Structure formats: C-alpha cells, structure tokens
Amino acid sequence: MAVISPRRCTALLALLAAAVMAVLIVPGTPAFAADPEGGTKKLRTNLEAAAKGYDQAKTKLAASKKRQTQLAATLKAAQTRSDKLTSRVSEVANRSYQMGRMSTLALLLNSNSPDRFVDRVQSLDMLAQVDGGTLADYREDIDTIKKAQIGLNAEIGEQKRQVSVMERKKKQAELALAEVGGGSAGGFIDASSPAADPAPRNSDGSWPKESCSIKDPTSDGCLTPRTLHAYEQARADGFKHYTVCWSQRSSGEHPKGRACDFSSNATTFKTSAATGSDKAYGDRLAAYFVKNADRLGIMYVIWYRQIWMPSTGWRAYSATGDAAAVHTNHVHLSML
Predict the structure, then answer these.
(1) pLDDT value at position 88?
(2) What is the pTM of this model?
(3) DSSP-assigned letters across all residues of 182-203
(4) What is the mean pLDDT for each group of 10 consecutive residues in the chain (336 residues)?
(5) Residue 280 and residue 268: Cα distance in Å, rounded?
(6) Looking at residue 325, what is its pLDDT?
(7) Cα–Cα distance between 146 and 47 in angstroms, integer?
(8) Cα gap 71→276, rounded to integer Å
(9) What is the Cα–Cα distance from 135 to 90, expressed in whole angstroms?
(10) What is the chain's Cα-based Rg?
(11) 174 by DSSP, 3-state: which?
(12) How far apart, in whole angstroms, are the C-alpha atoms of residue 147 and residue 49?
C-alpha cells in the first residue's frame, strides 16, 4: 500500500475543498449575464440621456407655447378694450380742458334754483366718477399690454432655447446610434392603430418620476406604473402574445422595471426571425407603440433591426447576434 506524504495530503485536501466550494457557491451566485438585447451598456446609457433630455425640452417647449397662446389672448383683449377707451379718454381730456375748475364753479353758481344746483352737483359727481373709472381702466389695459408684450418676447426666447436643446439631443442620439448603424430606415407605421389611454402627467406636462414599485404580471419582478400602463393598454388593444418585462440584467431598462419584450410569437420567444403572421404582428405592435409614444411615455422601440426614438424617427439597428439581439423575434419597449 502506497504511503501519501503529509505535503501531498494537504494539497489534495485543498483541491477537494476548492471543488466543494465551487459546487456550493456558483449555483447560488446571482447571474448578471450580458444583456441579450444587443448593443452595449454605453449605447443604452447614451440613448437614455438623449431621450430624456429631448423629452424634457419638448415638454418645456409645449408649455411655453401654451403660455404664449394665453398671453396673446390677454394682449388682444386688452388691446381691444384700450382701443374702445381711447375715444372716451379723449373726451375726458377735452372736457377737462374746456371746463377747468373755474368753469365748473361758474356752472354751479349760475344755477337758477336750489334744486337745479343740487342736480348739477350730482351730475358733476357722476361725471367725475365716470371719468375716473375710464382713466383707471385705460391705464390698467395699457399696463396689461406692456406686460403681455414682455411675456411674449420672453416665451419666444424660451422656445428658441428649447428647440436648440432638442436639436442637440437629437444629434446625441444619432451619434450613439452610429454604433449600431443608425442610418435612415423605412420603419413601421400603421395609421389605423388604436389610440391608447394616456398615462398620467404632472400639471406642467412632464412625466412623474417613478420607481419599480408594482408587481410585474409577466415575471417575479416589478414595474413602474407607467410601464404597467403601457403593457395593459397594448393587451387591451389586442396585443396579447407572450411577453416578459422585468428581468435581471447587467444594464438597460429591464432591471429597472421600465422595459418589456413582446414576442412576435403567441406562446414563446422563438430562436429564429419572425415570418408570416408573427412578423405582421410585430409590425403592427411596433407601429402601435410609435403612434402612442406621447400618450404612454415611450423612450424607444426596437423591432426587426430598426429602432425608433421621438427625436430621430426610425433608424437602422444593426446589432450582431441571434434573433433576440437583432430584435427579429420580439418588439422591445423602453419607457421614460
């Protein structure tokens, strides 16, 4: 019988311990596998920054245009009143010039009777009240006109700034998409797509900040309220194929509860590109999300080697990999 040296015995025990630890630890370690969506973490980070910046500028632009419309209505109303009062103000000025203090006193002293004197006093008092009210209204309208004009000029400047921001964010998105092609693409459009019920916005038109706080009906994870709303609206409008939203990944919106993958197949994610009715389903679903992007708060849509963003429209998405990576077996939805 061979005798094992103490040194060799120690080495064997260490090897055995390492093997046992590998068996025990590896299966229990969270698997943050590479994101199967294609592209890179840098791409997704840049797209998110560009999309959010564009949406914020767009919201501010819309708010400014709304204020501009209100100011224009105020200006028009004040100008109309001012025009009508101009003739009355002229009459007041002429009357004051013609009568003066002595003329008014003479008018009272020339009364033929006490009753006539009282009547003239009352008439002059009413005239003074009318003249005073006319002049006050006129001054108020002139002040309103000046403030409205200043406000309108400020809104025009604000709109120019926000248009400039939107243009910069568009270029940022285009630069990021150059990583995966990014050239112009035909896209998916369907004018007959149903209109989704809009998701709640803040009073200023912006989107509320949301966390992954609601149970995801498609997985054991969570969703933001806005993502759940988009998912439910799609199903309510007939898009009921197999879908998975939340999943644990190394990057992207899925682990944040802000993304869903809608399979083109009714029951599973196929490993090959969609064809026939499955392809037609994906085309319709992608077009549906694009049409309702502003109502639902959509950041971008990816389908069949193309990506849509509000700032860029449809662009080529030439990621490499299997059907999941190039999005030919599912429609990807990312939410703001």
Answers:
(1) 64
(2) 0.73
(3) EEE------TTPPPPPPPP--T
(4) 49 46 38 62 92 94 93 90 72 58 52 59 57 75 90 94 94 92 92 97 96 98 98 98 95 95 97 98 98 98 97 93 94 97
(5) 16
(6) 93
(7) 43
(8) 54
(9) 10
(10) 36
(11) helix
(12) 37
Is residue 173 within 8 A of residue 311, CB to CB? The reply is: yes
Could you tell me which of 195, 141, 198, 180 has the C-alpha nearest to residue 327?
A: 180
Q: How many CA atoms lie within 13 A of 172 on its CB side?
A: 19
Q: How many other CB atoms are there within 10 angstroms of residue 254's CB atom?
A: 23
Is residue 115 within 8 Å of 34, Cβ to Cβ? no
Task: Count how many residues are written for the chain.
Answer: 336
**Can you tell me the distance from the alpha carbon of 222 to that of 90, in angstroms, rounded to the nearest whole number?**
71
DSSP 237: T
Phi/psi at 261 (nearest 5 deg)?
-110, 115
Residues with Cβ < 8 Å from 117, sequence gap 6 or more?
A: 108, 111
Q: Could you write out the DSSP letters of every residue in 256-306?
A: GT-EEEEESSSSS--SS---HHHHHHHHHHHHHHHHTHHHHTEEEEEETTE
How many angstroms from the chain centroid is the CA of residue 289? 15
Phi and psi based region of residue 274 (left: phi greater than 0; alpha: psi -120 to 50; beta: remaining): beta
What element of type H or E holds 215? strand 214-215
- Asked whether the beta carbons of 229 and 257 are under 8 A apart, the reply is no
- Which own/partner contact pairs does 113-117 have at CB distance under 8 Å and 24+ positions apart? none
Domains and CATH numbers, the chain: 45-178 (1.10.287), 182-335 (no CATH)
Q: Cβ(311)–Cβ(333) under 8 Å?
A: no
The residue to which tokens 């989107």 are assigned: 207
